[in-house]
Structures are given as structure tokens and as C-alpha cells.
Specification:
- Strand 7, helix 11 and strand 8 form a beta-alpha-beta unit.
- The chain is α/β, with parallel strands linked by helices and about 350 residues long.
Length: about 350
């Protein structure tokens, strides 16, 4: 890997200003503590803490069960379609502030339906309103990956798949699978993935995070996953590495999240450089930004400093994400031309 050749300050400015694409970020996991407090007060939901400062401390990642506890509390604060539109608008505003032109946030609609009773149709209509507003007002857009939480029943997973098929193409871009991998293999939801794939709906599964290489193989076989959410533990199986390399199946790598979840002991010891050196298709992502105290911009900044990246590596990872996005070929080509023009302009400053 080439060492950094740019002045650190100019590289930092380049990273902050460059256009970006994010493929692995959770909508509910992007809710800021101050927004959660506002929603809780508005909807009269009791949270464990009553101030923004206390919520920020609570948000700090401890372990996976604590992570799930926060998610459940967040979901319980979303009582209306207007609440969903609010969090989607705030998410897109935050993406625009980082010059993230296109995002594919993951959203767990069934959890909101289960905890708050908001019908799927109303949820997706709210997401679409936020999407159209952001295109018009901010110049950014998104396609939502609606995921199945691994902990639910196969029947609940099928409900999600049916709703994704019904709404596919109207701001809904794929069926996903998230949650704790151990004990909940993709095969549990085989019928749901079969339904989506038969309807031409892409499936994009999390795997290779809390589970190992076998979990990634299952995502590929059972879900025909177009990309792998995380996937860093593919290195445990050389045959899998060769398959992913030959197929150029994108991995959505989230370094800070991996460190918080003890998938890697530290950023310096993260397998990201090895994944790149192996010729795997890598994209960079933030996962659950406020919970891991990061953003996509921060991920680029931290990785550039830690691994000695230059602006060329940052450009390549951005184009990797764009080319792996759930967009029509003509839209990708148009955006890539725009991105390349901006990269050149920024590099020449």
C-alpha cells in the first residue's frame, strides 16, 4: 500500500470536502441523542435518562446487549409516520453536511410495526417524503434497505419480505438481514429471501461480524447476497477469500464498529489493510454513527491516518461504493463523472 504523500492538513480538507457514498448505515442507529429526547418527550415515552448529556453517555457502546437495549428504546419512541419522516430528514441532513450524495440506510420496519403499530405503508410513505424533500432541498438522496432482524420468527421475516416486494422501487432498494448472527443463520429466513430474489429484489445481508466465515457462506448461498454487510471475518477461510475476490462481491467494512464490537482489538490491528491487499472489493462505512462516536468522514480520516492512505485511496473507496450502489447504470455513470470532476478540482487546490 502506498504511503501518504499529501500534507496531512490538505488531505484532511480533501476528505471533508470530497463527495461520498455510504452503503452501510442504520437509520435508527443514526438518531442523535437530542432528537431521541425530543421524540420521547413529544410521545411521552420514559427513557432511562432525562438529559442530552446523560443520553450521550448511555449511547456510548458497551456490549451487544446494551446496543440492542438502545435500539429497542429508540424504536419505542417512534409513534407516528411524522416521527419517521423526522428521523429520515435529520439523517439526510447529516449526510448532506458530509457531502454524502447518496446513501443506502438500513431500516428495521417490522420492529417499528411491532413496538408502535405504524403500518408498513405509512412508514414507507414517510421515508419517501423525506427522500423527495432531501433531493429537492439538499441535493442528496437514498434508497432504503429494509432488513429482517435475525431474532424474529421466520413468519415475521416473511412479512418484511412481502412488504419490501410490494414497495420495491419506490425508495425501497433491497431486503436485508441484520442482528446477532450466532444462532440465527440466513437459512432461518430462506423463504423470505427466495420470495425477494424471485421478484427481482436484491438481498443484502449482514454477515462475518459476530459470526465467522460460515455465516458469510450462508449469506451468499441462502440469500444470494449482492454485497456483504461487514464481511471482515472472511479472512478465516482462504477459499472464501478467493471466492469473494474472484466474484468481486463488495464488503461493507465499518472499522470503528468492528473495534467497538471486539471484532478487531484496535483500529491499528483491524484487518482492513489485509482485505485490500488481498484484492477484495472494499467500501468504507460508519454503521451506527452516534453509538460508535463516528461518521463516514471520521472513518476516512482515522483510516487515512492509521493506514497511511493518500487521496487516491480515498477516491477509490468512494468509487467502489458508488459502483456497488443500488442505482441504475446511467445514474452511476453520471454520478461518477461528477465525482471525478470534484476529486480533480479538490486535488488541484
Amino acid at each position: 500500500m502506498k504511503p501518504a504523500t499529501s500534507n496531512p492538513l490538505s488531505l484532511e480538507k480533501f476528505i471533508r470536502a470530497m463527495p461520498k457514498v455510504e452503503l452501510h448505515v442504520h437509520l435508527e442507529g443514526s438518531i442523535r441523542p437530542e432528537t431521541l429526547l425530543r421524540l420521547a418527550r413529544r410521545n411521552r415515552v420514559a427513557l432511562p435518562y432525562a438529559t442530552v448529556q446523560e443520553l450521550q453517555q448511555w449511547y456510548t457502546f458497551r456490549d451487544f446487549s446494551h446496543f440492542v437495549e438502545i435500539y429497542v428504546n429508540i424504536s419505542s419512541c417512534l409513534k407516528t409516520a411524522d416521527d419517521i419522516e423526522l428521523i429520515a430528514r435529520e439523517f439526510l441532513t447529516g449526510q448532506a453536511e458530509q457531502n454524502i450524495r447518496y446513501s443506502e440506510p438500513t431500516y428495521t420496519a417490522h420492529t417499528i410495526f411491532q413496538h408502535c403499530g405504524i403500518p408498513f405503508d405509512e412508514q414507507f410513505a414517510a421515508l419517501q417524503r423525506a427522500r423527495m424533500w432531501a433531493e429537492r432541498e439538499l441535493g442528496v438522496t437514498m434508497n432504503v434497505i429494509v432488513d429482517i432482524a435475525r431474532e424474529v420468527t421466520p413468519e415475521s421475516g416473511m412479512v418484511t419480505a412481502e412488504q419490501v416486494v410490494k414497495h420495491y422501487g419506490n425508495g425501497i432498494g433491497a431486503l436485508g438481514l441484520g442482528g446477532y448472527e450466532v444462532g440465527h443463520p440466513p437459512e432461518k429466513f430462506q423463504a423470505a429471501f427466495d420470495l425477494a430474489n424471485a421478484a427481482g429484489v436484491p438481498c443484502i445481508l449482514h454477515a462475518g461480524e459476530t459470526g465467522g466465515a460460515d455465516s458469510i457462506w450462508s449469506a451468499l448461498r441462502a440469500g444470494k447476497s449482492r454485497r456483504i454487510g461487514h464481511g471482515v471475518r472472511c479472512l478465516e477461510d482462504p477459499a472464501l477469500v478467493e471466492y469473494l475476490k474472484a466474484s468481486q462481491i463488495p464488503l461493507e467494512v465499518c472499522p470503528t464498529s468492528n473495534v467497538c464490537l471486539n471484532v478487531a482489538p484496535s483500529l491499528r490491528e483491524h484487518p482492513l489493510p489485509t482485505l485490500l491487499d488481498q484484492g477484495l472489493y472494499i467500501t468504507l462505512n460508519s454503521d451506527d454513527p452516534p453509538m460508535f462516536n463516528t461518521t463516514l468522514t471520521d472513518e476516512f480520516l482515522k483510516c487515512a491516518e492509521t493506514f497511511g492512505w493518500d487521496h487516491t485511496m480515498c477516491e477509490q473507496l468512494t468509487l467502489n461504493a458508488l459502483r456497488a450502489a443500488l442505482l441504475a447504470a446511467k445514474d452511476k455513470m453520471s454520478l461518477e463523472q461528477e465525482f471525478r470532476t470534484e476529486f480533480a478540482r479538490l486535488a488541484s487546490r
